[in-house]
Amino acid sequence: MHSSVATLSKLRSSPQHQTQLGQLCGSKQLFRDRYRIVRALGRGGFGVTFLARDVTLPYAPFCVVKQLCPKVSNPAILQRASERFEREAKTLSQLGSHAQIPQLLDYFQVEGEFYLVQEYIRGCTLAKEVKTHGPQSELAVKRFLREILPVLEYIHQHQVIHRDIKPPNIIRCHDDQRLVLIDFGAVKEQIAEVGHSSQKGPTTHFVGTVGFAPPEQLALRPIFASDIYAVGVTCLFLLTGRTPMEFDYDSATGEVRWQELVHVSDHFGKILSKMLKISPRDRYQSAEQITRVLELEPHLDNLADCMNKRHSAQLPHSDEAIDPNAYLSPVARTASAIRQWRNRLQARERQQNSEEILVSSGYFG
Fold it and tell me: How far is residue 99's CA from residue 180's CA, in Å, rounded to a whole number?
């Protein structure tokens, strides 16, 4: 009995319970005469997330209510935060038209605090999936990339950087197994930026997760390639079950030393290496680039045969014509054409170089 009282006391003193929505958890009282708060789903540095039911709709469907708590009291700064919140919420609303991004159902402000109401995704996060079933195969991780990269390309086309891609923020939907990307950092960053601008002295408003965020994001300069780095770290987690803090890092370059712990094909290893480059310039610059490289993999053997190997039928290597009576496969004919083009190009370059030497020597003076 004493233990139960202590547990209840601890629950009531928790940060979730201290918020207005936390006090409504499990009660019949509605928030804004519409939302019945069921339970807290989680808490981050910028607020608390709750599972709720919208009782104004048929069957009272579940939804997610996110309460953002800016640490601001100055009216002028609060007004600036309000304007940024409105702007970023409208951007999220536009993104929600994608099937793999939760739909934004409502957004509003109550007594200086900001709220987002989003579609509830019934499913399991990739973090929980790996914890339950163990690390995934290279094939499964490639499938993950093919599913998540189009979403990344979509949000980047809308000039949005997610800022917090990681396994707990990717849900596999129970209904149709699609992957859904949740918890965008754009709104949180705007609110945090305004809140910290009211404080004296140097401050930080980093939005993201250490280990998944690359150096430029830690330096408060996130770019589209920052999300690509986070997807690369997520791939490492799926392949090994290890969090970023469980890997060693190269003391000279700062890059993750993952090669000894991850066994993948050479082609996929090169893709991962490029996604995880410390310098943003050395990374893929868009999700579309990674998609194209992944699609190229099934054709690598044929391309290698074309460019590096001689066909057993003794293909012509110069400008000589192909014997019309000799059968050559389409791949072999393409390879021959490429070699002939290269030979002609090299011949022209040699001729130009010779002429330049003669001119500089005074032979054509």
Answer: 8
Identify which of 182, 172, 167 has the alpha carbon closest to the alpha carbon of residue 241: 167
Q: So what's the architecture of 121-298 in CATH?
A: Orthogonal Bundle (1.10)
Distance CA 48, CA 350 (A): 70
**Given 164, 250, 266, 305, the catalytic residue:** 164
Asked about 164 being catalytic, the answer comes back as yes
pTM (predicted TM-score): 0.75
Question: 56 is written with which tokens?
Answer: 């104004």
CB burial readout 289-312, b (16+ within 10 A) else e: bbbeebeeeeeeeeeeebeeeeee
pLDDT digits (tens, 9 = 90+) for 176-224: 999 999 988 766 666 666 555 544 444 446 788 999 999 999 999 999 9
DSSP 3-state percent helix, strand, coil across the chain (nearest 5): 50, 15, 35
What are the structural domain ranges in the chain? 121-298, 310-361
| Cα within 13 Å of Cα(291), Cβ side | 11
Q: Which two tokens stand for residue 160?
A: 């949005």
Phi, psi of 271, rounded to the nearest 5 degrees? -65, -50
- How many other C-beta atoms are found inside a 10 Å radius of the C-beta of residue 58? 6
Return the SS3 of 180: strand
